[in-house]
Design brief:
This protein is of the alpha+beta class. The chain folds into two domains: about 100 residues, UDP-n-acetylglucosamine1-carboxyvinyl-transferase, Chain; about 130 residues, Gcn5-related N-acetyltransferase (GNAT) (Aminopeptidase). About 25% of the residues lie in helices and about 20% in strands. It contains eight helices and ten strands. The strands form three sheets. It has a five-stranded mixed beta sheet, sandwiched between helices. Strands 1-3-2 form a three-stranded antiparallel beta sheet, covered by helices on one side. Strand 9, helix 7 and strand 10 form a beta-alpha-beta unit. Helix 1 runs parallel beside helix 2. About 25% of the residues are buried.
Length: about 290
């Protein structure tokens, strides 16, 4: 592991320029498609994604002008860009342009709003895998016990999840109906594909209590995206720490995936449980990769 050693004793003095955020600049640039008036953005970072999106917008007929360098500015100083979409000349975003960055998919909404039509290729340029554009991640507010059991049982049966299946409706509702517990359901083509549960009841940390895909959707590269989105949501609201638990029954790629997204092991616990397929709520066909212990 690399280390940085700091020898103190001297106060730091000076000033730095705070650059604009790429994830804020890109949607604002795309918003220029909504109007025929000029949109001027200041402190736009000088990044390849900004240049790529400028080319995509130019394809739709957006004129662009960039203010020249000023005294005292450096290569890290943000730039001022003026965007004008007086006339949309093309409602198609070709693959050779949008394949370089995933944010380019967002042009579909303003094109539809202004022109009533749009044709946009699936986005690319994502380090965590190619994803379809027809995904929806929606929070289930006060999910019914039957719907939650469907998610929990369908996602968790291959990995021998059983604790929540033993609960009564009242016990289950007391947990998933708590406003501090968030159940986010992933939909693909309108069909439930998986879910993630964020537990904020502990004031010291937020726990990613459950996360997984319905078996039919495993292997479609949805897992890394769902986990990435869930972690981003978990860190909102002043969160200081996010935790997640896994076990030897889990998918073999679960732990490497968690670690690739920043989690580090902090402890290991050994637990003994009665096999839930013998006298528990799971069928004997559950988790076929795990031997049944009578």
């Amino acid at each position: 592991m690399d280390k940085i050693r700091i020898r103190g004793g001297k106060a730091l003095r000076g000033s730095i320029a705070v650059g604009g955020a790429k994830n804020a600049a890109l949607p604002l640039m795309i918003a220029s498609l909504l109007t025929d008036e000029t949109l001027t953005l200041a402190n736009v970072p000088r990044l390849s994604d900004v240049s790529a999106l400028s080319r995509i917008l130019s394809n739709h007929g957006v004129d662009r002008s960039i203010a020249g360098k000023r005294i005292g500015q450096s290569a890290e100083t943000g730039q001022t860009i003026a965007l004008t979409a007086r006339q949309i000349v093309d409602t198609c975003a070709p693959y050779e342009l949008v394949s370089t960055m995933r944010a380019s998919f967002w042009v579909i909404a303003p094109l539809l709003a202004r022109m009533g039509e749009a044709k946009v290729s699936l986005p690319g340029g994502c380090a965590i895998g190619t994803r379809p554009g027809d995904l929806l991640l929606m929070r289930a507010v006060d999910p019914t016990p039957s719907f939650y059991r469907y998610l929990y049982g369908t996602v968790g049966e291959p990995w021998l999840w059983h604790e929540r299946l033993r609960m009564s409706d009242a016990q289950l509702s007391a947990i998933v109906g708590d406003r501090r517990v968030e159940v986010h359901v992933l939909y693909a083509h309108g069909t439930p594909a998986g879910y993630a549960e964020i537990d904020r009841r502990n004031p010291d940390s937020v726990d990613l209590a459950y996360f997984g895909l319905i078996p039919d959707f495993i292997g479609r590269k949805l897992g890394p995206w769902l986990l990435d989105q869930t972690i981003r949501m978990a860190w909102t609201g002043g969160t200081r720490r996010v935790t997640v638990n896994t076990c030897t029954f889990d998918h073999p790629r679960a732990l490497p995936l968690y670690q690739s997204l920043g989690f580090v092991p902090i402890r290991s616990v050994v637990r003994e449980i009665d096999d839930p397929r013998v006298k528990g709520p799971l069928p004997r066909t559950a988790g076929p990769h795990i031997p049944i212990i009578e």
